[in-house]
Backbone:
């Protein structure tokens, strides 16, 4: 990747993948969030403008600003060469996830209070907005109530193989306990791979008869693909349904290069959309 490629990326998505998208206030052309440089501030002071060719950010707390490259220079505490090295070394996984121990440090004390069936109206509304059927979601997710820094929250929780949880609601995208993949085992020799749990649920909505005919792997972070390649390679047939962005395409290319004819890219039917969930949101039929 070059500097232009990095600046073309969606900064909002970058912050989301780093679990830095907090207290978002969003309009068509403007986004305000808690500053990634001051995660304990109470009022959002980090602004992203969407009216230019590239996303432009400005941090009102420290007077810093610029494009994506400038953000990574400050965030990684490096120079332009360091940013380029970071992106190119991580290849498709340039959105490298920090581990939950980094994100939820000892200063961020959390505990799980309750796991139950999803019943809260705001969560049901959130699922409805994303066209994710509650009946299917309740088979794989829970409503989680948790405490973080002495404040109580609730969200949708999707479990992973490390007894961690992908936490989602309209405003929050974090991981509790430990980041890892999720694996749905039906004792099949065919594996379907998805980037997120919402894409997995979207697939089951579209193809309900497939629910128990395949095993399913949900990456939860594209950066976990290489780490779990040996597990993926145990299957005779692998079908991928990754995102249609640069990272998803690179990840698909990586799978096809490493595992050859075992892999089939089945993302063609939502080729005009970023991912499977966006496809069903925009296709009411």
Residues:
């Amino acid at each position: 990747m070059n500097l232009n490629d990095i600046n073309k990326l969606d900064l909002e998505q970058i912050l989301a993948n780093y679990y830095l998208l907090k207290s978002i206030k969003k309009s068509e052309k403007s986004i305000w969030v808690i500053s990634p440089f001051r995660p304990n501030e109470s009022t959002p002071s980090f602004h992203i403008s969407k009216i230019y060719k590239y996303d432009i950010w400005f941090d009102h707390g420290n007077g810093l600003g610029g494009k994506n490259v400038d953000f990574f220079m400050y965030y990684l505490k490096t120079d332009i060469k360091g940013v380029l090295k970071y992106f190119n070394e991580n290849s498709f996984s340039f959105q490298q996830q920090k581990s939950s121990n980094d994100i939820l440090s000892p200063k961020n004390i959390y505990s799980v209070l309750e796991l139950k069936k999803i019943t809260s109206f705001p969560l049901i509304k959130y699922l409805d907005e994303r066209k994710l059927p509650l009946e299917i979601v309740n088979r794989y997710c829970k409503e989680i109530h948790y405490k973080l820094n002495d404040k109580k929250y609730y969200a949708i929780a999707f479990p992973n193989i490390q007894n961690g949880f992908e936490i989602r609601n309209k405003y929050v995208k974090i991981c509790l306990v430990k980041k890892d993949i999720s694996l749905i085992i039906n004792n099949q020799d065919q594996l379907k791979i998805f980037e997120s749990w919402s894409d997995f649920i979207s697939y089951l909505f579209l193809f309900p008869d497939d629910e128990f005919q395949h095993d399913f792997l949900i990456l939860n972070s594209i950066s976990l693909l290489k780490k779990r390649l040996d597990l993926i390679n145990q299957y005779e047939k692998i079908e991928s349904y990754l995102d249609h962005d640069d990272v998803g395409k690179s990840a698909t290319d990586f799978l096809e290069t490493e595992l050859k004819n075992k892999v089939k890219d089945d993302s063609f039917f939502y080729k005009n959309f970023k991912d499977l969930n966006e496809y069903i949101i925009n296709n009411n039929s």
Q: What stands out?
A: The CA atoms of residues 237 and 261 lie 8 Å apart. The radius of gyration is 19 Å. The longest helix spans residues 246-259.
